[in-house]
Here is the input.
Amino acid sequence: MNAIKKFLALSVLAVGVALPGAGFAQATVDHSKMTMPKTAAMTDGEVRKIDKDAGKITLKHGEIKQLDMPAMTMVFTAKDKALLDGVKIGDKVKFMAVNDNGMMVVTDIQQAK
Here is the structure.
């Protein structure tokens, strides 16, 4: 009976040692097939309307690639109302926008050079 217990103990130990190694072999990743996330870039736009009290800005803009959004004119919410202080209607701008739970938010806006 002692020999059976020793055999079972060694068997369990051997399986315990072998399984984690097998798990690592299956968890290898082929990094050559990984793609980098889309990098956010400034988008060209033109200021059409500003509502500083509501913190909103209407921009006619080019394609926003990181949001898969075509060129159009739309209303954005400013992340910080102070962003709207440096622009006026008709200004050519470059801006950064994000989708915050379905709301398009301008996080940065600068005069185009």
Summary: Residues 57 and 76 are 5 Å apart (CA to CA). Residues 43-111 form a domain with the OB fold (Dihydrolipoamide Acetyltransferase, E2P) fold (CATH 2.40.50.320).
